[in-house]
Predict the 3D structure of the following.
Amino acid sequence: MLHAWGAGDREVESRLFQLLLPDLRKLARSMLRKERPDHSLQATALMNEAYLRLVKGRERGWENRRHFLAIAARAMRHLLIDHARARAGGVKTPIDGMEEILQGRNEQLELGIAINGLLDELGKIHPDWVTIVEMKFFAGFTDEEVADAVDAPLRTTQRKFGDARRWLFERLEAR
């Protein structure tokens, strides 16, 4: 069905979305669990926005369901970063006694933006590492699911994830 959709079959698109809806919803909920509790973006909105981005890119050669969900996780990550950047540009009204809490949120936002930038940078060097990080960290896939999705041995996938984490931490500490 993914191949038919990629070829432009509009009838398949609707059926495919209905089949993938539970997976997309689960993915959006998983990603939002890692966000602050009072996040203004809801899982349904995140899922819908990501799906709209994927519809625009339907000419992709989707390999399988896991590949599609990995790309959906990447789209959701970018949407969350875009949402955070938009909120950060808003007017900040200081509230007596709340400065420390607000400062903590700014630090988390800056960290999220830094990690996003580093993942984009890493993608130019090792795109396979970024895929593995996104699937494990953002989409919540197990090591076995990631290995299956990227069609690599489990141990190789785990090693690449370790290498990617080390690369990210080294650059974060340097900043």
